[in-house]
Specification:
This is F-box domain-containing protein. With 373 residues, this protein is mainly beta. The protein has helices spanning 6-14, 18-24, 29-35, 38-51, 292-295; strands at residues 56-60, 63-67, 83-86, 96-103, 106-111, 116-120, 125-128, 144-148, 153-158, 167-174, 179-186, 192-193, 199-201, 204-213, 218-227, 232-236, 245-253, 256-263, 269-275, 284-291, 302-306, 312-316, 320-325, 330-336, 341-346, 370-372.
């Protein structure tokens, strides 16, 4: 190997999966320095995203699971054969409350003591955030996780909205700084609420929230966004609701923000809208429509991925994963998990570290065992 040029060695290492790279760190100090170099880490992540073929991370009430699977071939194979349960670092499993989100191979988890945990299952690094206790406010707290490309840092949003107050506050944790800051949101005094963690798209976190208008005794929905670059909150308008329709969850399709609208008239259907040009309300476009007679139920639909052939991967009813062929209006169950899927997201492994080589405080970990379910 000594005769190989630096460029050749780097090219070989860049093509390796994460578990192999972790072992390569122990070959020599030179390789350790190369693999931990921020430029190498970013390039490896970029290549991993390009060749990722459908790894999912599934959150349930009983734990976190990986579905290590090529979703492009899922029409011919059952995903359940590839679902692996992850063992948490140390003895944290009893403390896990909810999977909040994933970004670049890092996972954010809410613990039962209201602390938050950042974890890279591939490298086994983890970090319990300092002083990150969430103050509950009667609804699931406004929280989320994403990447700030301006400061090259990962940020966690925590703390609930203070109800019946004209000024609401959230706390933002910056991983590189290892500290929290407070950001205020100025609203008009009505009550607000949200049930789901933020959706991260194009450097911005999004929450669909509802707002009570006490004077009119009505309730309306809209989107709150937080740009992680300038840490400013803004409102994003939803597509105009048609009569008899109800707005559903937010999601990401092909890198674009999307939302589902439901109607239980005419046997029931669900429209999927995508914001083609981010920030322009008029760019909301109805992509397609799901029929209840095809899916069997419209309850808890979540769009997970768009495949290269144009098919969609869906989670329905919390247990089943479906492959939906929009062109031919066909649907196939590719997974019947024995556990309830509370959250499901596309996932890519990375060598992003929470340890000392990136300037972050390292937490000792033990090897993460993966168990087939």
């Amino acid at each position: 190997m000594e005769k190989l040029s630096q460029e050749v060695v780097e090219d070989i290492l860049l093509r390796l999966p994460v578990d192999s790279l972790v072992r390569c760190k122990y070959v020599s100090k030179h390789w350790l320095s190369l693999i931990c170099n921020p430029s190498f880490v970013k390039l490896h992540l970029k290549l991993s995203k390009a060749k990722n073929k459908g790894t999912l991370i599934l959150g349930s009430f009983t734990g976190l699971y990986f579905s290590i699977h090529d979703t492009e071939s899922a029409v011919n194979e059952n995903v359940d054969d590839h679902v692996l349960k992850l063992e948490y670092p140390f003895n944290l499993e009893a403390k896990i409350v909810r999977f909040i989100g994933s970004c670049d191979g890092l996972i954010l988890i809410l613990l039962s003591d209201s602390n938050m945990l950042l974890w890279n299952p591939a490298t086994r690094d983890f970090k319990i955030l300092p002083g990150g206790n969430i103050r509950h406010s009667g609804y699931f707290p406004l929280c989320g996780f994403g990447y700030d490309e301006l400061t090259d840092d990962y940020k966690v949003v925590s703390h609930g909205i203070r109800m019946n107050s004209r000024v609401s506050e959230v706390s933002i944790y910056a991983l590189r700084k290892d500290s929290w800051s407070v950001v205020k949101m100025n609203f008009s005094g009505e009550d607000y609420g949200t049930e789901h963690p933020g959706i991260f798209v194009s450097g911005i976190l999004h929450w669909k929230v509802w707002r009570h208008h006490h004077t009119k005794l009505t309730k309306s929905s809209f989107i709150i966004s937080l740009d992680l670059r300038d840490e400013k909150f803004r409102e994003v308008s939803l597509p105009k609701l048609e009569d008899g329709m109800t707005s559903g969850d937010l999601g990401v399709l092909g890198g674009n923000l999307c939302v589902q609208y439901y109607s239980f008239m005419n046997h029931g259907f669900a429209d999927v809208w995508v914001m083609r040009d981010y920030g322009r309300v008029e760019s909301w476009t109805k992509l397609f429509c799901f029929k209840s007679q095809l899916l069997g139920s419209l309850s808890h639909i979540k769009l997970l991925q768009v495949l290269k052939n144009g098919d969609f991967l869906l989670r329905i009813n919390g247990y089943d994963l479906f492959m939906y062929d929009a062109k031919h209006q066909r649907c196939k169950v590719i997974s019947n998990t024995p556990f309830r899927i509370v959250e499901a997201e596309a996932y890519v492994q990375s060598i992003i570290s929470l340890g000392a080589e990136n300037g972050f405080k390292r937490k000792a970990t033990r090897r993460c065992k993966r168990q087939r379910i």
